[in-house]
Amino acid sequence: MVPPAPKGSLNLHNALSQSMNTGQFSDLRFVCKERHFLVHKIIVCPQSPVIATGVNGPFRESQTASISMDKFDTSTAECLVDHLYTGDYDSHSRIPTIEASSAASASELECLSPPGPRTDMSLSEHIRVNAIGDYYQVVGLIALANDRIRDLLQSSNSYKITHAELPAAVDLALNSTANTEVFDILAEIMADGLLTVIEWEEVKSLKSEMPDFAIKVLQSCVGKMRELHKQIQGLNSDLTCKDHELQSNQKAYQMAESELTHIKLSFEVLNKTSICRNPNCHVKFECYFDDRTYKLRCERCGCRHSLPYDAHGL
User: Fold this and answer.
1) What sequence ranges are listed for the domain BTB (predicted)?
2) Is the Cβ–Cβ distance between 153 and 123 less than 8 Å?
């Protein structure tokens, strides 16, 4: 059993959060545009083999103790840092930084930009997070970004993804990340709505990744899908009619089976009857079957004849 931490001490999670929020004891910087993110090698290197190689090998990064992230925007770099320290991420000013022209003096560390509020992120922002995770091989960040992309596209808020945003997100993914899972997610979503998506002008504008021939192939597939959809609707209609017909035939069969049972019982009564059961009827016993109930009746008086043990109540 792990003994409780002494009163006033920090647990590991709080210590990491404090280190992220203050930049204290930082021995590495992520430089992105005009912002410096103060980080710690012991935290970031085990999670990113790319960063570990840069700061431990014979490269400029190991001499300057800084990693340039200028190919990404600052909010995306911020998400990377956030995830490395918390296992989560958000793009809106939660990580304190100093300006690129500043030195990380003790007094400046106390004046770092304060964390901002968490807000919802767009589809494109999550794809950029996927891209930076893929670039630095941060497996946990890639998986988390993909989960949020999938959730965003499949959630009840997916109607907020506009005709322009989804194709733009696809174009961004194709040109910014090599992670195949995010391609699978986007392809699945577009395939689900292919009948609609293929008509979007924004999709047709993806010329670099989807040439005219590919568009024509997809449009041909959509045409065939529409034909098959109509055929399926027709078959479903036929199936409904056949189902009603079957139910009607089953009902008629049940009625015929019931009538046959009545007839068999009536013949059984006839075979056992020689006189009318009416004591006042003394004529020769002549009989007929009731057309409605198939009961045996005396032709003269109409008296009904049935077996004494008739358990059917017919």
Assistant:
1) 26-93
2) yes
> What values do phi and psi take at 72, rounded to 5?
-115, 160
Q: What is the pLDDT of residues 140-169, one digit of tens each?
A: 999 999 999 998 888 744 545 655 677 788
The string of pLDDT tens digits covering residues 66-102 is: 999 999 999 999 999 999 998 999 866 556 666 544 4
Both tokens of residue 176? Answer: 């910014």
Distances (CA, A) of 26 to 41, 87, 125: 8, 19, 27
Q: How far apart are CA 45 and CA 27, in angstroms?
A: 12
- Residue at 312 is within a domain: no
Is the CB of residue 209 less than 8 Å from the CB of residue 218?
A: no
Q: How many CB atoms lie within 10 A of CB 19?
A: 19
Say how many domains are in the chain: 3
Q: Residue 270 is which amino acid? A: L
> Kind of pairing, strands 304-305 and 296-298?
antiparallel
Q: Is-contact 139 127, C-beta < 8 A? A: no
241 half-sphere exposure, CB direction, 13 A CA radius: 6
Q: Report in angstroms the alpha-carbon separations of 118 from 91, 94, 115, 133.
A: 8, 8, 9, 20
What residues form DSSP beta bridges with 32? 35
Other CB atoms within 10 A of residue 90 CB = 22
Cα–Cα nearest to 92, from 129, 54, 56, 141 = 129
Same structural domain, 133 and 232: no
Is the distance from CB of 55 to CB of 67 less than 8 angstroms?
Answer: yes
Instruction: Judge if 20 and 98 occupy the same domain.
Output: yes
**146 falls within a domain:** yes
